[in-house]
Amino acid sequence: MSYFTYKESRLSAENIDLAGLVKSISTPFYCYSLSSLQDKYKTLSSSYKNDNLLICYSIKANSNQSIIKCFSDLGSGADVVSIGELKRALKAKIPNKKIVFSGVGKTTEEINYALEKDILMFNVESLDELKHLSVLAKNQGKKAPTAIRINPNIAAGGNAKISTGKTEDKFGISWEDAIDIYNIADSLEGIEIKGIDIHIGSQINDLDPFSKSFECILDIIKELESRNFNIDIIDIGGGIGIDYKDEGKNLNIDEYFELVQEKLGDLGKTIIIEPGRYLTAESGVLVTEIIYVKKESNKNFVIVDAGMNDFIRPTLYGAEHKILPVIENTRSNSLEPYDIVGPICETGDLFFKNLPLDNPKKGDLLALLSVGAYGSVLSSNYNSRPTISEVLVKDHQSELIRDKIEIDEIVKRDKIPDWL
Fold first, then answer.
1. What phi, psi does 403 have (nearest 5°)?
2. 345 is known as an active-site residue
């Protein structure tokens, strides 16, 4: 979070004073640092010494088109999981031949659209999907460039809900069935075998699961090539974690790419990685205002205007995000623990338990850190609350990149039948 620092006791995003930003943009809102996004991408792109790397930004992490455009300008491709994400990628000028389509439930509409747009590759996750893709491609007189996503039965990820590489997970095809599935794919009209794909989870800060997964697909590639299958692309997915708690547990990117090179680099294949969280998480803060301070005999609460509908990771995953005062308190030096909670009518609407704060007051501003990934994209209008604004900053510039969707607009979406 090096682009969010205190300057004379006031938290800034690059050179923009966050408290000053509140004068023109109502809380709560997301604020992203463009320089952070750019630096993260450049760290990845410069850390792998081979020239056969394609970074495909995982759009599900943050689908704001300004964020996608930032990576597009740097040469990124995209990993998409829906027609909406595909359309966002294309609108943000991601080249069609740098787009891979992942996900277990691609619909007929989505597949047809992706075929029409001539994307780089489909990551296929079931035999049913493979056969359906074959039919749709044949109907368009095309061959669908295809990789089979392998499930290696390897546990990984910061939470069971974001682990994707175990047998009981819905993703991919068992490594034990891989050769049979490739044989079937080879027999199907409309299918062009292009590569192999693996993705074992998210928020991984240990090299061992990656090493095991790379060894798994290396064995499969060797077996396939012994059978005269031509594998051009190895998609090793994403999953690179970040250090949300500042505990010094960041995955070493140089060591990660050394592992990639050791296991896969000498095969002469294009290597695709699909980072999302790593690129975006630390670029964002959620600015929220204290609306009430509630002190009771055995528990103190700070109630803020952001809710779990705006940022659900703490509720959904039990995730902990650092929270800082936007203006450091110089009124006293008396820290007390407070639960930071939102206005949603759910006990789970909780951002942090027992956060030490110095005499918080109504109207004070707080910033939740490292919310650039899986923040706004997971928001909702639960409790009929508005969708909040998003702001992008660079140096002394700031720009609204997503308007707040007001209550009246949300209410207008409902239709009452004449007969009711």
1. -75, 150
2. yes
Which pair of structure tokens corresponds to residue 164?
Answer: 């994707």
Comparing CA positions, the residue from 282, 206, 284 lying closest to residue 240 is 206
Separation CA 222–CA 216 (nearest Å): 10
pLDDT tens digits along 54-107: 999 999 999 999 999 999 999 999 999 999 999 999 999 999 999 999 999 999
What does pTM read for this prediction? 0.93
**Of the residues 31, 70, 216, 345, which is catalytic?**
345
